[in-house]
Amino acid sequence: MTQHDQPAAIVGWDEPEGLNPRGTVIVLPGRGEQPAVYERFGRRISADAYRVRAVASPAEDPALTEKQVRSLLDGPKPVVLAGSDTGALFAVALVASGRLPEVAALVLAGLPTGPAAGAAAGQGGGGDPADGTGAWHAELAARTACPAHRGKLAGDILRRGALYEPVPAGWIEQADLKAVTVPVLGLHGAADPVSALTAARAKYAAAPHAELVSIADGRHDALNDITHRTAAATIVLFLERLRNGAGLAPIAVTEPL
């Protein structure tokens, strides 16, 4: 039995010793990803005293993911769901349905905008994703431009070819941002070959309280791209504003000169 045949356990990163936690960030991975994919992200966010937990990928086992998320809702407040790829869709659906009133905000990375999201990456690989190195290199290129993260993905924390698979049926419709009343932060690679930024912009425009940050030259996995430090800093600034209230009043203001 391989790691991908076993239920994924929750992986966590705690706030530094001696500091009170400033909130809980629950990470929902994307297609084919194990929770350990987000180790670097979890360590970076937890260094600022936010408790981070990564759960199973909902594209692999949605019932398990929801069960794990619910087990974490009594963590330090505010509780924020941070989803990537299909994890972002699932996070939106959970909150839009009203089933998780404990969630204070959403952070969404690489939000898919259509059921065939992923096909563009497959076309760049020269055909079927199982045919060898060409398709695998294309998938890596679509996911991230970061050499260190590409090396990590070469291990047993990613089911290769998963990014070519269609978004589960109905997930696009269920991820109705119009029905999400909590604050939403979107991060999206400007060069995302899986989910085009222009289409993502239209999705976020429908949300009552959303901000969309594009990452210059960014690929699909905005949390683990070569600009991962900027992505993490953007999220921490959002979390700090959230702690001051759902109105997200600015804390650092650029003054006109």
What does this structure look like?
With 257 residues, the protein is an alpha/beta fold. It has one domain: Rossmann fold. The protein has 9 helices and 7 strands, in the order E-E-H-E-H-E-H-E-H-H-H-H-E-H-E-H. The chain has a 7-stranded mixed β-sheet with strand order 1-3-2-4-5-6-7, with helices on both faces. Helix 3 links the parallel strand 4 and strand 5. It is globular.
Report the end-to-end length measured between terminal Cα atoms. 63 Å
The helix/strand class is alpha/beta
Question: CATH homologous superfamily, by name?
Answer: Alpha/Beta hydrolase fold, catalytic domain
Shape: globular
Mean residue pLDDT? 92
What is the rounded Rg? Answer: 17 Å
CATH topology: Rossmann fold
State the share of residues found in helices, binned by percent. 25-40%
The CATH architecture is: 3-Layer(aba) Sandwich
- The CATH C-level name is Alpha Beta
Number of DSSP helices? 9
Q: What is the strand content?
A: 5-15%
